[in-house]
Amino acid sequence: MFQFFKRVKTYVGSELNAALDKAEDPVKMLDQFMREMAADIRDAETAVAKQIANEKMLKKKLNDAESMAAKRQQQAVDALEAGNEDLARRALEDKKVHEGQADSFRGAHKQAEQDAAALREKLDEMKREYQEMQLKKDSLKARAESAKTRTKMNRAMSSVGGDESRRGFERMEEKVLQYEAEAETSDDLRSSSRSIDDELDALKKNSDIDEELAELKKKLGKE
Question: Can you tell me the distance from the alpha carbon of 174 to that of 177, in angstroms, rounded to the nearest whole number?
Answer without folding.
Answer: 5
